[in-house]
């Protein structure tokens, strides 16, 4: 009951934090063109130019400090470790590890697709999980996509709340995880209940039961992910005039696009 009350309170906070469209902060035309020309492939749907929202950002000072912390963590810890990890482990093995983690998150994708009424996507996710867990050897391979043309449909509880009109709320930068907002932050808990990689003890299936175990597994997943696409972060940094608002705007625009799809 307390959890339900907290969710309701947070929902009112989120919907009360309104935003409006404004012109992009003063930059030269060449700077705008430079920023919009090299987005990651996932962001190409925005086109060459996109509008920037005036976000609810009461934690601006903290967010800037945490962005710097995460950047230093990447440059001096994650990046060197990922380079060594990449040198030791062949790319096909690292891709299999990524597939394994993606397969573990099936319950989260299935439930959130169902909650949004995307029943066809939920059925495709079920087919992918069955095929990849069996033929794909516990998800290490992706025969569902290669041989059966079944696409993944990533959905989380933050997208589900957004689907039903819950606003993003204040932007929040999380340690290690990076850009987020209040809606997506509180959504970590219900999503964690559907994931075998959890940070709290529970009476049903879980690969991790404590914070150290959870952080260790997530750090390993993060390093593996970085090793497969090390240029992405570097490209984004090169395009940034001011790192924090640049990352913030990209994240909020990307999440908005995901919810609208």
Explained architecture:
- The chain has 261 residues and is mainly α.
- 61% of the residues lie in helices and 5% in strands.
- It contains 13 helices and four strands.
- The strands form two sheets. The chain has a two-stranded antiparallel sheet with strand order 1-2. A two-stranded antiparallel sheet has the order 3-4.
- The protein is globular.
- The chain starts with a helix and ends with a helix.
Q: Give me the number of helical elements.
A: 13
Overall 3D shape:
globular
Strand count, sense and barrel status of the largest sheet are:
2 strands, antiparallel
What is the helix fraction of residues, given as a range?
55-70%
Task: Enumerate the spans where pLDDT stays under 50 for 5 or more consecutive residues.
Answer: 1-16, 18-52
What is the mean predicted local confidence, pLDDT?
A: 82
Instruction: Please write the string of helix (H) and strand (E) elements.
Output: HEHEHHHHHHEEHHHHH
In total, the number of strands is 4
Radius of gyration: 19 Å
Structural class label: mainly alpha
Termini separation comes to 32 Å
Residues in β-strands, percent? 5-15%
Strand order of the largest sheet: 1-2
Kindly summarize this structure in a few lines.
With 261 residues, this protein is mostly helical. It is built from 13 helices and four strands. Helix 3 (60-88) packs across helix 11, helix 4 packs across helix 11 and helix 5 (106-115) runs antiparallel to helix 6 (119-134).
């Amino acid at each position: 009951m307390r959890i339900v009350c907290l969710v309701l309170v947070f929902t009112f906070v989120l919907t009360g934090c309104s935003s409006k469209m404004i012109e992009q902060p003063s930059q030269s035309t060449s700077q705008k063109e430079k920023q919009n020309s090299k987005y990651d492939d996932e962001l190409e749907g925005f086109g060459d130019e996109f509008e920037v929202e005036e976000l609810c950002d009461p934690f601006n000072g903290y967010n800037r400090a945490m962005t710097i912390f995460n950047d230093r963590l990447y440059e001096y810890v994650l990046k060197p470790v990922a380079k060594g990890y990449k040198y030791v482990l062949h790319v096909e093995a690292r891709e299999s590890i990524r597939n394994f983690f993606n397969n573990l998150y099936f319950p989260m994708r299935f439930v959130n697709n169902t909650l949004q009424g995307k029943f066809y996507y939920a059925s495709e996710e079920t087919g992918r999980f069955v095929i990849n867990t069996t033929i794909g050897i516990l998800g290490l391979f992706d025969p569902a996509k290669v041989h059966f043309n079944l696409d993944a449909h990533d959905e989380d509880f933050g997208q589900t709340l957004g689907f039903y009109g819950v606003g993003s709320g204040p932007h929040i930068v999380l340690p290690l995880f990076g850009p987020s907002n209040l809606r997506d932050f509180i959504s970590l808990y219900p999503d964690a209940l559907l994931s075998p990689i959890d940070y709290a003890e529970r009476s049903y299936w879980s690969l991790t039961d404590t914070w150290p175990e959870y952080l260790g597994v997530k750090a390993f997943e993060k390093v593996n992910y970085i090793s497969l696409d090390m240029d992405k972060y570097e490209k984004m940094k090169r395009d940034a005039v001011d790192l924090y608002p640049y990352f913030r705007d990209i994240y909020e625009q990307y999440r908005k696009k995901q919810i609208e799809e």
